[in-house]
Amino acid sequence: MSTMGTKTPAQPAATELAASPPKAPDKRRALRLPQQTLARNLLLAAIFGVILYLLSESFSSFNNLRLATIAYYFTALAGLTVLTGLNGQISLGHGALMAVGAYATAILVGRTGLPLGAALVAATAITAVVGIAVGAAASRLRGPYLAGATLAFAIGLPGLADKYPSAFGGENGLSVNPPTPPASLGLDFPLERWEAWIACLCALIVFVILANLLRSRVGRAFRAVRDDEVAAQLAGLNVARIQVLAFVVSAACAGLGGGALVVVTQLAAPGAFDLSLSLALLTGIVLGGLGSLGGALWGALALVYLPQWSDDIAHSLSLSNNVQSNLPLALYGIVLIVVIVAAPRGIQGALHGLTRITRTRLRNNPATPNEEGA
Amino acid sequence: MMKTRSRAVAGVAGCLVAAALVASGCGSSGSSSNAPGVTKTSVLIGSHQPLTGPAAPGYSEIAPAAKAFFQYLNAQGGVNGRKINLIYKDDGYNPTKTVTVVKQLVLQNKVFAIWGGLGTPTHTKVVGFLNSSRVPDLFVSSGCPCWDNGSKQPYTFGWQPNYTIEGKILGQYIKQNFAGKKVGVFYQDDDFGQGGLAGLKQQLGSQIVSAQPYQPTVTNVAPQITAIQKSGAQVLVDFTIPAFTALERLTSFKLGYKPQLVVSNVGIDPTTVGGLLKAFSKGKANTALIEGAITDAYLPSPTDTSNGWIQLFKKIHDKYDAKAPFDGNVEYGMASAYTFAQALKNAGKSLTRQDLVDAVEKGGFTGPGLVPFRYSKTEHGGFGGGAIAQIKNGQIVVTGKPLVTDPGTGPITPSTMKPANPGDNGIVKP
């Protein structure tokens, strides 16, 4: 997990960089994570897992539903941010890739009766295969042409559902039964909490895999291709293959995100995967901070909360329906402009900036106690 | 190394912020009664409506009209001392959004019941959730036969005649008045259109020479209309939402296809279809294109000013909902809201969700309807029939006698119900 903006492999004083929020020096030592990549990421995932578990236990049904929504958005956004932020390929078609995962899950669970876990794995694999095809085309395209091609994909693919209504249920979509929580959890275990667990598990798996991948050879190759294709080629990297690989990884994440969406909404219908979803995903990673998994989390939060806030604003101002229904889009636009102007590296980038400032202050005045705020 | 660590902790911080945000969202509860959404002085109900999207023209007037009716009722003291508060959310006729907004209404807004959730493709996606959460799901604004399943969906009730019943009544009329003529059907490709087609087939059998489905997001209907025209159909039956009635009319006009038109009740409100024809053709077309169309009605025509119900609804409309045109959609919203108020009254003062469901199953409702309701422990259907009507001078005119039947293969018989007057039940003081 590196950010696009921090081109700082040569930055000195490595040991002194603490975190936001800053801790007292002793505590900081205690917080030190293992040096080994896999162990560190697994430990982090375990910490996140415990936090998410505690959250879901204390949440009402509605908040668990929100948590699940954030988790499946994160799953898709993490993949997209790797593609765009770390490999430099833009995709306006990730909504359609989510649709592939969603329909695959709905068909496998609803028609063939596959267990949910197996269906999600299969849906991820199927979307990855679709990703190979799209990625192969994408690796030949650059800039606006790539954006255009993926845009066409986003608009065209959901139309297949209308074209073949007997296979995909048309506009009506495919419904699946809600996942049944295992009996061992108790008979009155809330369905929404179970859905949140499934979606969060997907998100954590994607987190571990991507966090590892990005610190591996492959991740470095992704960045090398992003920074300078010619230089990467001279260094012996197969640029096209790496670009396809990045697309496949990203597509697989989108597919899993789509599958998790079906778990949460029990429905795969074209209305869920229109162009605005693809645009929202792109907005999400830019808002959150391109190229970092933390940014993907911020993006997922924004995608869940921005529409809600715009809804609340519209209601409290009692605007007309025409204004109300367009307000979320306008708000996206405004927030995007504000973030790009105020924090070009997204929320995650801005946080880093803040951390650096506080750290400098703290170093100048180490006695100042600092409360942890969340 | 250091970069990762700082980022990791920032991530944890992010999670905590997320938690705080999520937690802050779970605001108000504060009802004193046992049932969610009910207090001594109020009851909160919710609905999902197509305020935008392909079904918005016309149908977006329904919920504001119902709200206006409840406001009128509340000004008179409400029902059993409780004021009825309706919140309706836009789902854009998009099933995925329906799932989101209904879960929000039930889990976040904690509504007591859902009233009049609109649409077949939309509402079918939340019936399972509402029934497993034991939320009364009253008077779905759709005639899908699928609501009528008291044993599997004890909390869901339809209101308008189910589409198979409509199909049967329209089919019988065609059989009697256009004997031997070829019939084409243009229908929405979901339980709405398929339900209507089933009723038509029961009556007309091989008289139907072509049945063409459409998807509500694909606005080019020329392929379907061309196919129907080529089949030589002299009678065309539309099981369509208003926007697609208008699209069919304009396409047929362009193709020079002039069959006898028959349209399901939900797709023919003249104000709505006329407005759409005008909008789609940039002012060149109007209700002349639906003149003479045959349909069925289960409520009095909104232009029948001699009817006491229409007078009452018009009065409420002028006071609380004057921005909307007074048409069939407004009448629909108020009539459905009236039935809801009646159910709420019969459910009694100490209100629970089960009480409301029991009250509907007990039935005995009256109102502006031309035919009786089909409510019992096993029947959750709604109006049991309708009367043949026709578009004359751009208005719906009821021309036939009220007929009743069942969604199965039962016979179609004349209705024996005596029409009620407003004020009969003491729900409203007209």
What is this entry, summarized?
The complex is a heterodimer of chains A (374) and B (430). By secondary structure, chain A is mainly alpha-helical. Helices cover 71% and strands 1% of the residues of chain A.
Structural features, described:
- Chain A is mainly α and 374 residues long.
- Chain A has 16 helices and two strands.
- Chain A has helices at residues 25-30, 37-58, 61-87, 94-110, 116-138, 143-156, 159-163, 165-168, 191-214, 217-227, 229-234, 239-265, 275-288, 293-316, 321-342, 346-364, and strands spanning 174-175, 267-268.
- The longest helix of chain A has 27 residues, at 61-87.
- Residues 1-28 and 368-374 of chain A have low confidence and may be disordered.
- Chain B is an alpha/beta fold.
- Chain B has helices spanning 2-24, 56-59, 62-75, 95-108, 120-123, 127-132, 163-177, 191-204, 222-230, 242-255, 270-280, 308-320, 328-347, 353-362, and strands at 42-49, 83-90, 113-115, 137-140, 156-158, 183-188, 208-214, 235-239, 260-263, 294-297, 373-375, 380-383, 385-392, 395-398, 403-404, 413-414.
- In chain B, a hairpin with a 2-residue loop joins β13 (385-392) and β14.
- The longest helix of chain B has 23 residues, at 2-24.
- The termini of chain B are far apart.
- Chains A and B meet through α2, α3, α14, α15 and α16 of A and α1, α4 and α6 of B.
